[in-house]
Amino acid sequence: MADQSIPEARTPRSPGTTEAPEAALKGGVREGAPVEGAGDERAAGKEGISRRLLLGTAGATGLVLGAAGGAVGYAARPAEATPLTSLGADQVMFHGKHQPGILQGLQARGHLIAFDLAAGAGRKEAAALLRRWSETARRLMAGEAAKQDDTDVARDAGPASLTITFGFGHSFFGRTGLEKQRPVSLDPLPDFSSDQLDKARSNGDLWVQIGANDALVAFHALRAIQKDAGRAAKVRWQMNGFNRSPGATAHPMTARNLMGQMDGTRNPKPTDADFDERVFVPESGSNDPAWMANGSYAVVRRIRMLLDDWEQLSVKEQEDVIGRRKSDGAPLSGGTETTEMDLEKTDKAGNLVVPINAHARITRPDQNGGAAMLRRPFSYHDGIDTDGVPDAGLLFICWQADPLRGFVTVQRKLDRGDALSKFIRHEASGLFAVPGGAAEGEYVGQRLLEG
């Protein structure tokens, strides 16, 4: 739950317009995305309308077909929204430099699912599976029906900012005879003091992240991916998450987690000079295998929040644990959410205004040798335990070029005295190598599986 920074919000266009102020729509796709390969390139004004979108909008009144959706935010800030009737038209491109689901704004619904290859399945079966999955992802992200046996769950909807992302776990390479292509960065994560991990809900040969701004669109994709697995792979574990819906607040803002805290203030920004260096594997000059160029490493943690204990604290006590004001996310040292935290400021009694064990102090990149990661989580709530305690918390997902320098560095620091640690519990964990985006005519992972 590292405290990271978010980029500036884009200016939303006025309702009824079809051109964003910062980028023209050309050939059905917005130009001028701030990061190459980002999902900010939305389909708009298409000449052809998908079968799924057409079925859902036929006979509707007052709805502009093919209009571009709200401008995208990044990471902890949800995408800016135009009127709710346009949310379904938002589209993210499947093909690109990076896989979708990394640079896009937080989505309202998410599913994380891990698979293990079936007994007897190897490299050949894995390649066929990734080919099927990539084609399904491309179609569904464009608002089209699945190629075979579509369930019609999303029949009435547009793409709704759907993204589908694929990754490989440590065990995948042994199962496919590709051990020599396994990155060193995929070595298992070390143990941490706050870990109480359920092995059955951790790791896996293959990992899929699904996000969308419509629950049925997200579920439709989940079922399609599961059905595509066929006999090649079986589900190891699956988790469901959510975020605030785009347009639910008066203006775009940093997301809040289930503790009520703004979560993600210091996420690295795409405009930072070292953003790509921190988040993505370079095309050359790294120790990673060539197939990981433009890819990233995803650390996935199911972090249970002990909400009954947390909610017993006063607001002042909660703010001291985090190091930021609960109302607006500003550091306790003063200013606004984006004001630089003054780590040396003291009160009249000489005590540090930001406590020495405050979460926001400990996770700062300048307190961790520059370590940073792009956080893109979902909250979760899986009901109430038999003892009446809510099973709720954060599906923590962070992206980095090197997990040892990113997540591991920060988590080790948190292990040594984070005030938040007594209110959370890490219950599941995974580390996955997520290759770069598939070019036109390619499937995700093709350079690994056919190299």
Chart the SSEs and their pairings:
Layout: E1 25-26, E2 29-30, H1 51-57, E3 75-78, E4 105-106, E5 109-117, H2 123-141, E6 163-168, H3 170-175, E7 206-212, H4 215-229, E8 233-242, H5 275-279, E9 296-305, H6 307-310, H7 315-322, H8 359-362, E10 374-375, E11 378-384, E12 390-400, H9 404-415, E13 424-434, H10 446-449
Parallel strand pairs: 3-4
Antiparallel strand pairs: 1-2, 5-7, 5-8, 6-7, 9-12, 9-13, 10-12, 11-12
Helix pairs in contact: 2-4
Characterise this structure.
- The protein is of the alpha+beta class and about 450 residues long.
- Helices cover about 20% and strands about 20% of the residues.
- Strands 9, 10, 11, 12 and 13 form a 5-stranded antiparallel sheet that branches. It has a 4-stranded antiparallel sheet with strand order 6-7-5-8.
- Strand 11 and strand 12 form a beta hairpin.
Q: What shape does the CA trace take? A: globular
* Percentage of β-strand residues: 15-25%
Structural class: alpha+beta
User: What's the pLDDT, averaged over the residues?
Assistant: 86
Helix content: 10-25%
Let me know the number of strands: 13
Uncertain runs with pLDDT below 50, 5 residues or more?
4-49, 53-74
- Mind telling me the C-alpha Rg? 21 Å
Distance between the termini: 37 Å
Helix-strand pattern, N to C?
Answer: EEHEEEHEHEHEHEHHHEEEHEH
Query: Major sheet: size, sense and barrel closure?
Result: 5 strands, antiparallel
Query: Helix count?
Result: 10
